[in-house]
Amino acid sequence: MIVCKFGGTSVADADAIGRVIDIIVSKREQQPVVIVSALGGATNQLLDIAHKAANGELLVAVQIIEQLRDRHLREAATLLAGTPDADEVAHDISVTFDELAHLAEAFRTLGYLTPRSLDTVAAIGELLSSQIVAAAFRQRGFPGVYVDARDVMRTNDFFTKAEPDTDGIASAAQQRIIPLLQQGKIPVMGGFVGATGSRVTTTLGRGGSDYSASLIGAAIEATAIEIWTDVDGMLTADPRIIPAARLIERISFDEAAELAAFGAKVLHPATIAPAVQLGIPVFVFNSRRPEGKGTMIAFDAPRLPVRAIAGKRSATMVKLRSSRMLLAPGFLRRVFEVFERHRTSVDVVTTSEVSVSVTLDDTHNLAAILQDLAEFGDVSVERRSGVLAIVGAGISDGGAALAQAIAALGPIPVRMASLSATGINFTLVVDDEQVVPAMQRLHAAFFEGGAT
Ligand code: ASP
Ligand code: MG
User: Fold this and answer.
1) Ligand nearest to the CA of 206
2) Directed axis angle between helix 58-80 and helix 42-54, to 10°?
3) How far is the CA of 448 from the centre of ligand 1 (A)?
4) 8 Cα–ligand 2 center, Å
5) Ligand 2 center to residue 420 CA distance, Å?
6) pLDDT, position 327
7) Most buried of 158, 345, 368, 402, CB within 10 angstroms?
8) Is the pLDDT of residue 132 over 80?
9) Are 45 and 64 in contact (CB under 8 A)?
10) Does the beta carbon of 8 lie inside 6 Å of ligand 1?
11) What homologous superfamily does CATH list for 308-447?
12) Is residue 124 over pLDDT 70?
């Protein structure tokens, strides 16, 4: 059994859904469970409808409802024309949007939204896309069966970010999904959507379909989870900055987590943790290029000094010098309490006997932070900073890679350097405008000389 999840761009229209069917059909002997996102962009529009209506802009809300209704009807008609399902699916789509129009009126009258009502609206995208995709399988002669995510994805009632009840999901999956697979059927379920024990609709939070895939994979003890998206996989660097970036064929969960913290947007590792913890590998594939190798994210990966390089611009570096720090237990705690008090998380940290330097992404409360820090010593700020991350489980093995990284930077001044104790991320702070050239130099040194 495997779980195959298709993101919004992979089910954006009838053509894309056609590719989904081809991909799944080629994997039938592996007993795939299909999980789909909403048609690309639909969730944003649904939430927009709710907000506009509650804001009194009912007309605009209704216009978006009609756009979305037409889009769903059009794609369904293209896929299902002439099949026994066509009328039924079209009817369901229309009823759903009629109900949404009534909800929008209610939101207008109330003038506010609750998290619970937002989930009811947001879930519509996946509930419809999964019905359309299931019927599209049948139109092509394959036994697609729609599974209502609310019958399987049991959650608590933390609306808009509901937490899964993994035991409940496992037993529901045993009842609702496994028998279908045993009968040779292709279950198709919406991601992102869940329900409480009393079957009130919930969602797992934005982007939650990967999480759904991982939870279902864990529940049925799948042999693999495939995340089908619109990029080839994870790359050795952001290809917009480094056109020579290469596909990473295999990466460990921890390495992927470090990269995600640096904005690698392919998927958020937290969402695949339930599967990876059980030893189920997660693959990222491109639904437009299904022949590609993709990236495998597993608990472990062969140890390399450098797996990938990431960078981010516009960080702010705060330096605190204090002679009082000398031999003072609890000093760092008091310094970090300042950041905590102002709800600001620190990113890179280095300390010496007389100074502490940190970088921040969020500078909303910088003025207040600086004022509080000034009580400990001299504070200075460097706003135009950037952070580079050189990520690899073997980064500190033997020190050669560290030396190579520093050497590769050549004349670019390093403002801070930090090697995580787990030895998986070598972080360097440079001036903001040096981030791109530094990434180019590092990538060339580690990946373009055949030195992977
Ligand atoms: N459709 C949902 C969203 O846009 C969930 C997902 O696509 O993962 O957030
Ligand atoms: Mg998505």
Assistant:
1) 1
2) 150
3) 36
4) 5
5) 31
6) 60
7) 402
8) yes
9) yes
10) yes
11) VC0802-like (3.30.2130.10)
12) yes
Start-end of CATH 3.30.2130.10 domains in the chain? 308-447
- Residue whose Cα lies nearest atom 5 of ligand 1: it is 207
From the CB of 9, is ligand 1 less than 6 Å away?
Answer: no
pLDDT for residue 391 is more than 80: yes
Residue 196 clears pLDDT 80, i.e. is over it: yes
- CA dist., res. 52 & res. 108, Å (int): 8
- CB distance 125 to ligand 1 below 6 Å: yes
**Residue 161 has what DSSP assignment?**
S
From the CA of 7, how far away is ligand 1's center (Å)?
8
Q: Provide CATH 3.40.1160.10 ranges for the chain.
A: 2-230
Residue list, CB under 5 A from ion ligand 2 = 7-8
**Contact call for residues 1 and 223 (beta carbons, < 8 A):** yes
At residue 367 the predicted structure's pLDDT band, cuts being 50, 70 and 90, is: very high
Write down how long the chain is: 452
pLDDT band (50, 70, 90) for residue 264:
confident
Evaluate if pTM is beyond 0.85. Answer: yes
Q: What is the DSSP string of 272-312?
A: HHHHHHTT--EEEEETT-TTS--EEEES-----S-SEEEEE
Ligand 1 neighbourhood includes 208 CB (under 6 angstroms): yes
Options 3.40.710.10, 3.40.1160.10, 3.40.50.12780, 2.40.50.580; CATH of 2-230: 3.40.1160.10
For the CA of 125, the nearest ligand: 1
